[in-house]
Amino acid sequence: MSEEYRKFDAADYVKSEEDARGLLRAAVDEDLGDGAVIRAALKHVARTQNMSALARDTGLNRGNLYAALSEDGNPTLATLLKVTHALGLRLRLEPIESPTPGPQPAERQNLPAGSTSP
């Protein structure tokens, strides 16, 4: 007996605004720092909406919106802000709870912002 598989599509499971927020929250938590997971989650959430309306609300044309959120897309910060705003979301930056080792922000090194370490 052969098994049948179908491609997983997160958009199939986003049925409410709460689902969308949960997916995006998880994407932010799991992103490796290149934005790929966040972009993919935004694409899935955007696909649950009317893409024509989303394009109108962002001021982007549909083709550019699809391209920006595609697997090879590299949306600008302005595009991300427009998309999140049109979805009724706010992009927020907050401190990392357990920072990874490496260079620390200037404030934690007791340096003035914009300074370089000695």
Question: Could you walk me through the main structural features you see in this protein, from its secondary elements to its overall organization?
Answer:
The mean pLDDT is 83. The chain has helices spanning 17-30, 36-48, 51-58, 62-68, 77-86. The protein has 5 helices and no strands. The chain is mainly α and 118 residues long. Helix content is 44%, strand content 0%.
Shape: globular
Q: In total, how many beta strands?
A: 0
The biggest beta sheet, please? none
Unreliably modeled segments: none
The ordered H/E elements are HHHHH
What share of the residues does DSSP label as strand, in percent? under 5%
Give the helix proportion (percent range): 40-55%
Total helical segments: 5
Structure summarized in a few sentences:
The protein has helices at 17-30, 36-48, 51-58, 62-68, 77-86. The protein is mainly alpha-helical and 118 residues long.
Question: Which terms summarize this structure?
Answer:
about 120 residues, single chain, 5 helices
Task: Give the topology.
Elements: H1 17-30, H2 36-48, H3 51-58, H4 62-68, H5 77-86
Helix pairs in contact: 1-2, 3-5
